[in-house]
Design goal:
Two copies of one chain form a homodimer. In chain A, 39% of the residues lie in helices and 14% in strands. By secondary structure, chain A is of the alpha/beta class. Chains A and B meet through helix 4, helix 5, helix 7, helix 8 and helix 11 of A and helix 4, helix 5, helix 7, helix 8 and helix 11 of B.
């Protein structure tokens, strides 16, 4: 049996802990089913080229926690008693199980098939869902959008043809460059902007064009899982760098002397998921690292538009003097996710090759929506919408923090409430994350553990609370129900 | 100087011919500029690991044709007298020159940077442009489209959120499956359909997931250049298979005994660019090849909707019993290109991994357009539009063929007029393709040589004539002007 386990000796977590975690996930996501026999310690040790002691240590932990059971003389099996509803109840799961295929996959395909945690897309219908990343959809000015769509649809028919601008509709790139320069201190001209199908495609193109499989990428720990999966799938070596109150602990980059770090992926405006804002000294330190080593920086600025009472710190891109920063932005949070429009601000030397790659991979984005978005920005609708949303989110955020403090007091630690549309909360509780999620689901509450976003030093009791699309009543009621679960356990 | 020349000993064309062709293209697309010194024969022979005689033969041909000149005692140079307007006048050119980069590219990035012929996107404004691939945009029922957009934009706001269907909006997949089963004898259920950003993304995903760099892909010769570039960029070995009146000469697949052919890319309904229709015996032969070797087939059905008086032959996919066929379709030709919606019909075993890859690469397509398209198909607008367009294209095609015959008689051979929205024409002329294109541009006529679509046995005087978006008056006048150029030379 192939178990698709990848251990990484560069991680600070000991190998037996990594093995334990991966086996546990394999059981929880159902790829190992109850009653299924697992490999002998001797076999697994050999196939992973690790010591048998490491395997035994992991197995013992899983046995003691009831994930595995031994049947004398027959071997070790996945426990029959694992409650079915625990399986797949993790908020992160595979999209669909990839069964053994009759058709041979490429290395990329194989790695993708074996990725354990693809953030899930379909969720159960829940009354109050604290998932992250969804803006307040009902507040979107749909009538203006509809009017613009209708206008551009009819204006003339030239837009129906292939675009001659694979990097994006020129007036849109101009509007974005103008907006970024003004509001984010990003230093760019329209020609440096590549319009992409959201952040995912921007990341995918960067990896394909600039990083060779096997090269090393540093990520925040915890950090954005969907980015990590792109890096993993394309065969990158990944090293986790700690995050504290000032964001990425830049000096840790020097710890990895054996690996040349080609790229650092950061979310400086509102670190995902902790919400820390990367301090100015750290920003300068990171840029100086890039300049000294020739390394690159991806600055993922996914929701910096929402800040509450904090003075903005200039984007890394705007501080950069050595063309080391690839800046990514998206309209998924400020407008709506199904628009699928994001953008990449590129050093000038990379514009031509990225444009060519975009043309090769899928030509260009649909043109109509690009026209509508350009007009939406240029005629001031975007800034008006942002002002309105800042005030709505600020209020929701305050309500959420207030009810959390009221119910939990010192039993909850709140992080990252100064920006964005989610916060992170650490609970003191004897319940496991899975138990909390499971009980919450039963009372109609959707919860997301921060755990899968950690590559090392997995915590317990840390959850991400998206509040963008929840009303004050929902926020209050949601936390009330949650308090009953966590505090009464 | 690095010249980025790739010679392939597997091609039937002799090496000196390949080298000649690539050097010539490098001069024409401006990567080697007039007056620039080219490497010595000794140096180039050594760096390409070929005999010096091969290099000398190519250089001599280029010298005799006036592309190169020698300066005694100084070396060989690109000729100063190459007229500037010949440079970059080829209808196929690089998007932008990729200059040497300060940032290291991946292997993929490097290969892409060195691709010589990326089909061009920006074209000069011409009165009558015979470019292929553009449908009759002014005939598109824009009012219906606009009404549907307006309706779905307002219906409810659920569509604004991330889609829970990365493989595509379910009603759209259902509508496409239904349409394909009925009109193309494709054998599929909605679950097998993956909605993609056009044909390009479908091809890109297939290559990434199923083909490892270095593996061999067979393509039609001539064949669709944009597909070939995707294969080349991802590091595939490519072998050309001839095309005759019955389409791909399947038996030639057996000639490549040294390479295991993993994949064959074909355009059976209307071979691009020759227009041949793959005969039923050949289809069965190709499927039997796949069954015997375990090879895969990409069936690119880019414009099969338009047939003139020919009985349709079932799609390869519908005849396949062994899950060897990946069927690609697009709405770029039947509706409009900037919609950016295509689809892939997958063997069931591949659905999960392709869905996961789509989710990872760019999540999903914009949802609004998918809703509109689903309704457009389901309420019969697509079939009505197709009926109307078939009759319009049929008439345009007849006019084009008639005026070609009238002016050129036996000096023009017309191919592929039974389907699609382009034909291929071979002219008997002493002028080179470039000379014809250049003279045509001067009188406001856009021409596309078939030459770049050949990987081997490059012809002379073969052109592709797209007629979809040209009126009968434009077609008549365009050919009249062309006759003056070609016949009066």
């Amino acid at each position: 049996m192939e178990l698709a386990i990848t251990l990484n000796k560069n991680l600070p977590e000991p190998l037996h802990q990594q093995l334990y975690e991966q086996l546990r996930q394999t059981i929880l996501n159902g790829r190992l089913t109850p009653g299924e026999r697992i490999p002998s310690t001797r076999f697994l040790a050999k196939s992973l080229s690790i010591s048998r002691f490491t395997v035994t240590t992991s197995y013992e932990q899983l046995l003691s926690e009831g994930y595995l059971e031994t049947v004398k003389g027959r071997g070790t099996f996945v426990c029959q008693q694992i409650p079915d509803n625990l399986i797949d109840s993790n908020p992160i799961e595979i999209i669909e199980k990839i069964n053994p295929l009759p058709i041979k996959l490429s290395k990329y395909g194989n790695t993708l098939a074996n990725i354990k945690n693809v953030p899930r897309i379909a969720e159960p219908e829940l009354q109050i869902n604290f998932r992250y990343g969804t803006p307040a959809l009902s507040e979107f000015p749909i009538k203006i959008w509809r009017r613009l769509l209708s206008h551009y649809c009819n204006a003339n028919l030239n837009w129906l043809d292939y675009s001659t601008e694979p990097s994006g509709y020129q007036p849109l790139r101009k509007a974005i460059a103008h907006y970024l320069t003004r509001s984010r201190a990003v230093n760019c001209e329209p020609e440096q902007i590549l319009i992409t199908n959201g952040t995912q495609q921007a990341l995918d193109l960067i990896l394909r064009l600039l990083i060779e499989p096997g090269e090393t990428i540093a990520i925040e720990n915890p950090g954005y899982l969907s980015a990590r999966i792109i890096f993993e799938t394309q065969g990158s070596q990944i090293v986790p760098i700690s995050v504290d109150n000032s964001g990425l602990v830049v000096q840790e980059l020097a710890n990895f002397k054996d690996n040349i770090i080609r790229l650092v992926y950061v979310t400086p405006s509102h670190q995902f998921p902790t919400g820390a804002i990367l301090s100015l000294p750290r920003r300068l330190e990171l840029l100086s690292w890039a300049q000294q080593t020739g390394g690159l920086i991806i600055e993922d600025d996914y929701d910096s538009e929402f800040r509450y009472g904090e003075k903005p710190i200039p984007a890394l891109q705007g501080l950069d003097k050595s063309d080391s920063v690839l800046y990514i932005g998206t309209f998924s949070k400020v407008l709506f996710p199904s628009l699928r429009i994001g953008y990449l601000v590129l050093p000038k030397s990379l514009v031509a090759i990225f444009t060519r790659a975009k043309w090769l991979c899928d030509r260009h984005l649909p043109v109509l929506e690009q026209q509508v978005l350009a007009e939406f920005i240029e005629s001031g609708h975007l800034e008006r919408h942002l002002r309105k949303m800042r005030s709505i989110y600020d209020q929701r955020r305050q309500v959420l923090v207030k009810v959390l403090k009221k119910h939990f007091g010192k039993r909850a630690t709140i992080l990252g409430e100064k920006a964005g549309i989610h916060i992170m909360v650490g609970f003191k509780s004897d319940l496991s994350d899975e138990e909390i999620i499971q009980s919450a689901t039963k009372v109609g509450i959707g919860m997301m553990s921060a755990n899968p976003h950690y590559l090392a030093n997995h915590p317990k009791g840390e959850f991400i609370f998206g509040y963008g699309d929840l009303t004050e009543t929902q926020l209050t009621e949601g936390i009330r129900r949650l308090a009953q679960i966590i505090l009464c356990s």
